[in-house]
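Quick start: load a record and inspect it. Here is Ig-like domain-containing protein:
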Amino acid sequence: INVRCSARGKPRPQLLYVIAEENDDPEAEEDVWTILETTIENDNVVGDVEFTTLSSKVLHCKAKNTAGSNSSSLTFAVR
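Running the structure step on this input writes:
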């Protein structure tokens, strides 16, 4: 699976991600997040997350800068 995370902001945000179990709350622990390698496209910070899974998972992407943070999630249901 390949998913692109993107964000924009001033100052330019850092992108982080975590792949978690469906009921896990990654916000509970800050050290579970991985920093994404990013590029700039049309004033957006973008980074790709590539992973394989044999069970249902949730991908959480977070954009973070000194102004704050925002996150979004995608659920991958394996049946």
